[in-house]
Write a structure and sequence with these properties.
Blueprint lengths: L1 E7 L5 H10 L4 E3 H7 L6 H10 L12 H9 L2 H28 L4 E5 L14 E6 L2 H12 L3 H9 L4 H7 L2 E4 L4 H17 L2 H31 L3
Parallel strand pairs: 1-3, 1-4, 2-3, 4-5
Keywords: ATP-binding, Kinase, Membrane, Nucleotide-binding, Transferase, Transmembrane, Transmembrane helix
GO biological process, one term: coenzyme A biosynthetic process
GO molecular function: ATP binding; dephospho-CoA kinase activity
Length: 233
């Protein structure tokens, strides 16, 4: 099994592309969903956030007020680093368990959907990376409309991330999400077809089987040697 990264700029339509892959029955690990899961009330990361930032970042029912917390950390690098130190290890652990789950089930590849793929998830060894992109003006317009931001705030959110130009340079595949849904879907289908044509997963599986066989045979011969020394004929 090999790993494929899916990322893009805020407001570029990555969630739409992610759903298209899921509709094609491609296994996908959504880091945003995992990020919400690890801060559910009562969990370790939730308790650490409450102790670090206070109860003011919680709703009445105990749920994390993500918007309020975002306002606290957005302009404060030190507080943002504290939050990352709490959440990133928990998210990485859940992603690792999900990768193991799909590996055991014998999937050819798994897509890891992460908005901060280059900035945060550098520990993941990706074979291919897909970047969802759109025109700058369209990105700004979508963000203002989707999140009800003022234009200045939307620009600040965009500029806080790695530039789309840099993400496109690092990408193996680029999905240009400027046109119709059908146009985007056709690009997703083409990439999916190419990924399915790769034989990388067989190389990895053969390597795993070989390592397992070596370990098993080594254990057998070591056991036989110990037995022979303990019970010489």
């Amino acid at each position: 099994m090999f790993l494929v990264g899916l990322t893009g700029g805020i407001g570029c339509g990555k969630s739409t592309v992610s759903k298209m892959f899921c509709d094609m029955d491609i296994p996908l690990i959504d880091s945003d969903q995992i990020a919400r899961k690890v801060v559910e009330p009562g969990r370790k990361a939730w308790r650490q956030i409450r102790n670090t930032f206070g109860s003011s970042v919680l709703e009445e029912d105990g749920q994390l007020n993500r918007k309020k917390l975002g306002q606290i950390i957005f302009g404060d690098a030190e507080k943002r680093a504290k939050l990352n130190a709490i959440t990133h290890p928990a998210i990485a652990k859940e992603i690792f368990f999900s990768i193991c789950y799909y590996l055991v089930r014998g999937h050819q590849f798994v897509i890891i959907d992460s908005p901060l793929l280059y900035e945060v998830n550098t520990w993941i060894r990706l074979v291919h990376v897909i970047v969802v992109s759109c025109d700058d003006n369209q990105q700004l317009e979508r963000l203002v409309k989707r999140d009800n931001f003022k234009e200045e705030e939307a620009r600040s959110r965009i500029n806080a991330q790695m530039s789309m130009e840099e993400k496109r340079k690092r990408a193996d595949y680029i999905i240009h999400n400027n046109g119709t849904i059908n146009n985007t879907k056709n690009q997703v289908q083409n990439i999916c077809h190419q990924l399915k044509s790769f034989k990388t997963h067989w190389i990895i599986r053969i390597g795993i089987v070989t390592i397992f066989a070596v370990l098993l045979s080594s254990s057998y011969f070591a056991g036989a040697l110990i037995y022979k020394n303990l019970y010489p004929s």
